[in-house]
Design goal:
- This protein is of the alpha+beta class.
- 44% of the residues lie in helices and 19% in strands.
- Strands 1-2-3-5-4 form a five-stranded mixed barrel.
- Helix 7 crosses helix 8 and helix 7 crosses helix 9.
Length: 199
Amino acid sequence: MIAYVRGQVAAVTLSSAVVDVGGVGLEVMCTPGTLATLRAGHTATLPTSMIVREDSLTLFGFVDDDEKSIFELVQTASGVGPKVAQAITAVLAPDDLRRAIASDDVKTLTKVPGIGQKGAQRIILELKDRIGAPTGVRPGSVAAASAEAWREQVHQGLVGLGWTTRDAEKAVDAVAPEAGEVPDVGALLRAALRSLSKA
C-alpha cells in the first residue's frame, strides 16, 4: 500500500492532483479543501489511501493523517464506499464528524451528499464506539487564496459534489462575507454546504 506521496505538484484539476514522484505522475483524488493547499510547481506531501478494485487502483490524498484515518474508518460502516467517504471528509472536519457521531447528530451527517437519514443512523450506530473523542486540533489553515481563487475553488468543489452551477453560485455568494482577508477554502466549502442543506 502507498502510505503517502511526496513530490512536485505537476497539475491540479477539479477533483485531483498529479504529483511527480521520481518521474512518475501519480494522480491523487482529493477534496476541494486539500486541493486548495496545493500549487503546481511546489513540492507537497500527501498522506494517501489506496483503493484496489478489480478494474482500478485509485489513490486518495488528504491534508493530514487524521483526515486519512477518518476516510478509512468511515468505509468500515455498511454502505459507505470511497466516494461517500470522500464526500464526508470534504463536508466535515474530522472533529466535526466525531462530535456528530458522539451526539447522535443525524442532521449534520445528512448534509453530506449521498447520506440519507437511515445511512446517517447506521454510521452513528456502527462507528460510535470506534471513532474516538474530538482531538481539539484544527487542521492547519488552508493556504491563503486570493479573493477570486477561493470563489472558484469552492464553486468547483460544490459542482464536483453534485450541486448545480446555479446552487453553487448562490452558496458561494452566501458565504462570501465569511471569507475575510485570508480565505480558508476548506472552511468556506463546509459553510457553503451547510447553507445548501438549509435551503
